[in-house]
Design brief:
With 547 residues, the chain is mainly alpha-helical. It folds into 2 domains: 415 residues, Na+/H+ antiporter like fold (Up-down Bundle); 107 residues, no CATH class. Helix content is 78%, strand content 0%. It has 22 helices and no strands. Helix 3 packs across helix 11 and helix 17 runs antiparallel to helix 18. The relative contact order is 0.11.
C-alpha cells in the first residue's frame, strides 16, 4: 500500500477514535495503541519500523513545544519543587532501581547498559493522564504538576541515557555523570531562553498571523539543534523556549496571531501525538520478530517487562506518597498555629494522601520510552529483548493505569475542582477588567487616534458592552449555584448568545445567497464571511466558559 494512502487512513482512524473515545470514557491514546497492536498481528501485514531518530529529533520537539506554550509559566514556577522532584529525582531513582533489576535478570548485561534501559523506561507521558485529569476535574495544581513533570522528565531521562551509553564504552565516574547533567540542564535553559526571547521579539514585529505562525514551526528546532550541538539537552531547551513564548506571547503578539498559533499547534499536536501512539501499536510485530535468541524468548522478555513495570509503580508510590502526606500535615500545622481553619478546597492546600495516590497512579509511559529504547547501541547485549521490555512497560502502564485512573480518582476521594468556584473566579476577573476599562473611558483627557474626543454616545455604548460582559459572567456563576432562575428558563446571557447565533445563521444564509447571485464582489463576500466567523467564534468560546 502506498505511503500516502496509509497516511490518509491513519488520519481517519485518529479522528474517528478521538471522536469516539469520550463516549467510551477511555483515553484515545489507549484505544489507538490497541488498534495498532491488532493491525500488526493480522497475517500478511508487514512489520512497521520507525527510526528512533525520527521520533526523538523530528516528532518530540514540536510535541514538547506545543505542551510548553500552553502551560502557564506561573503554574510551572509555583510547582517547581514538585515538578523537579518528579522529573529529575524520581527519574534517577527509577532508572537505577529498574537498572539493578535488569542487571540481576540479564547475566551478560553490564550495569551501565541496564541503567541505560532504566533511563529509557523512567519518563512518564502525560498525554492520556492530563486528558483524564482535565475531563474528571482534578485540582488545577495537580494537573499542572502532571503536565510539568512530563515536560522535564524526558530531558532528565535522555541525559541519563546518554551518560549510561557513554559508560558502556569506557569508565565514567558518578562525578562525570553529575557534571554532565548540570551542564546539560544549564546550557539548555540558556539556549532555550535566548531562542524564546529572540523569536518572540521577531514575531512581535510581524502583523501577519500567517507569518508569525510559520515562524513558530521553526522555534522548537531552533532551540533543539544548537543545544544538542553543544552537548546539552535539546528537549529541555525546547521546553524553556516554549514556556517563555507562551508567557511573553500574551503581551507582545497580536490577537489574530495568538488565535492562529493556538489553533494550528493544537491541530499539529493532536495529529503527532496520536499518530505516535498508533505507531507504537503497529511496531509490535516487528519487535516480536526481532527476538530470535532461544535463551531469552519473547515470553521471558515480556515477563521481565512486567517485573520492571511493577518496580516502577512501587518506586513511584514510595517516592510520591510520603512527601504528599507530610506536606499536608505541615500545612495544617502551620494554619493551626496562626488560628486559621483548614480549607481543603483552597488553591494552595496540598492534596495529601488522595492527591499522592492519583499522582502515583499517573505514571503512564509512552512515545519517549519506545523511541529511546530503539536508540540503544546495536552492540548492546539482548538489545531486541530490551526494546521489547521497554515496549511492554509502555503498553502495560498505558492500558492498565490509563483505563483505571478514572476509577482511582473517584476512589481516592480527592476534592475535585469546583465549577462554581471556577466561574466565580472568572467573573471576579472580568469585573476587574471591566473596572480598568471603565476607568480609561472616564478619563477626561481621552482622545482618539486623530486627536479628537470621542462622542458621548459612543463612549456609553462601549461602557455598556463591557458591563454586559461582566453581568454575563456572573449570571453563569449564579446559574451554577442554582440561583433563583425560573424553572427551564435560560439566564439572560444564554438567551442573548442563543438568539445572536440564530441571527448569525440567518445572516450567513443571506450571505451565501448573495454569493450565489453574484450581486456583490468576491472581496466583499470574503470580508463578510470573516466578520461573521469572528463573531460566531467569540460566541462559541463564551459557550465553552459555561461548561
Amino acid at each position: 500500500m502506498r505511503n500516502e494512502v496509509v497516511a490518509v487512513i491513519g488520519v481517519i482512524v485518529i479522528v474517528g477514535v478521538s471522536a469516539l473515545a469520550p463516549r467510551l470514557k477511555i483515553a484515545a491514546p489507549i484505544i489507538l495503541v490497541l488498534i495498532g497492536v491488532g493491525i500488526s498481528i493480522i497475517p500478511g501485514v508487514q512489520p512497521v519500523v520507525v527510526p528512533s531518530a525520527l521520533i526523538l529529533t523530528v516528532v518530540l520537539p514540536p510535541l514538547l513545544y506545543a505542551s510548553a506554550i500552553n502551560l502557564p509559566l506561573s503554574d510551572f514556577r509555583k510547582n517547581i519543587v514538585s515538578i523537579t522532584g518528579l522529573s529529575v529525582a524520581l527519574v534517577f531513582v527509577s532508572a537505577f532501581g529498574t537498572g539493578l533489576l535488569l542487571f540481576w535478570l540479564f547475566p551478560q548485561l553490564s550495569l551501565a547498559s541496564a541503567i541505560a534501559l532504566g533511563a529509557v523506561i523512567s519518563p512518564t507521558d502525560a498525554v492520556s493522564a492530563a486528558s483524564i485529569a482535565k475531563r474528571l476535574g482534578l485540582p488545577h495544581r495537580l494537573t499542572a504538576i502532571i503536565e510539568g513533570e512530563s515536560l522535564v522528565n524526558d530531558a532528565s531521562a535522555l541525559v541519563l541515557l546518554r551518560s549510561a551509553v557513554a559508560a558502556t564504552a569506557g569508565a565514567v565516574s558518578i562525578w562525570q555523570v553529575g557534571g554532565s547533567f548540570i551542564y546539560s540542564v544549564v546550557v539548555a535553559a540558556i539556549v532555550g531562553a535566548i531562542v524564546g526571547v529572540v523569536t518572540v521579539w521577531v514575531r512581535s514585529q510581524l502583523r501577519d498571523p500567517v507569518l508569525t505562525t510559520a515562524i513558530s514551526f521553526a522555534v522548537p528546532f531552533l532551540a533543539y539543534v544548537p543545544a544538542e550541538a553543544v552537548g546539552a539537552s535539546g528537549v529541555l531547551a525546547v521546553v524553556a523556549a516554549g514556556l517563555l513564548t507562551g508567557h511573553f506571547g500574551a503581551k507582545y503578539f497580536s490577537a489574530p496571531s495568538r488565535i492562529s498559533e493556538r489553533l494550528t499547534w493544537r491541530t499539529l499536536s493532536f495529529l503527532l501525538e496520536n499518530a505516535v501512539f498508533l505507531i507504537m501499536g503497529l511496531q509490535l510485530k516487528g519487535l516480536v520478530e526481532s527476538v530470535v535468541d532461544e535463551k531469552l524468548s519473547v515470553q521471558q522478555a515480556v515477563l521481565f517487562g512486567l517485573y520492571a513495570t511493577v518496580v516502577l509503580i512501587v518506586l513511584r508510590f514510595v517516592f510520591v506518597m510520603p512527601p504528599a502526606v507530610l506536606m499536608k500535615w505541615r500545612y495544617r500545622r502551620r494554619l493551626a498555629r496562626t488560628g486559621i481553619s483548614f480549607d481543603p478546597g483552597a488553591p494552595e492546600a496540598p492534596a495529601g494522601a488522595s492527591g499522592g495516590l492519583v499522582l502515583s497512579w499517573s505514571g503512564m509511559r509512552g512515545v519517549v520510552t519506545l523511541a529511546a529504547a530503539q536508540s540503544l547501541p546495536e552492540n548492546t547485549p539482548y538489545r531486541p529483548q530490551l526494546i521489547l521490555i521497554a515496549f511492554t512497560v509502555a503498553i502495560v502502564t498505558l492500558v492498565l493505569q490509563g483505563t483505571t485512573l478514572p476509577m482511582v480518582i473517584r476512589w481516592s476521594g480527592i476534592r475535585l475542582a469546583s465549577p462554581v468556584a471556577d466561574r466565580e473566579e472568572f467573573a471576579s476577573l472580568v469585573d476587574e477588567l471591566q473596572e480598568a476599562g471603565r476607568g480609561m473611558l472616564e478619563n477626561p483627557s481621552l482622545v482618539l487616534s486623530d486627536g479628537t474626543a470621542p462622542d458621548t454616545e459612543v463612549v456609553e455604548r462601549v461602557r455598556h458592552d463591557a458591563l454586559l460582559r461582566s453581568q454575563s459572567a456572573w449570571e453563569l456563576a449564579q446559574t451554577a449555584e442554582h440561583a433563583a432562575v425560573a424553572p427551564g428558563a435560560l439566564p439572560a446571557s444564554e438567551q442573548y448568545r442563543e438568539l445572536r447565533l440564530e441571527v448569525l445563521r440567518v445572516e450567513r444564509e443571506t450571505l451565501l445567497d448573495a454569493r450565489d447571485r453574484e450581486s456583490f464582489s468576491s472581496h466583499a463576500i470574503t470580508k463578510a464571511h470573516e466578520m461573521l466567523d469572528l463573531e460566531e467564534s467569540r460566541l462559541v468560546q463564551n459557550e465553552g466558559l459555561a461548561d
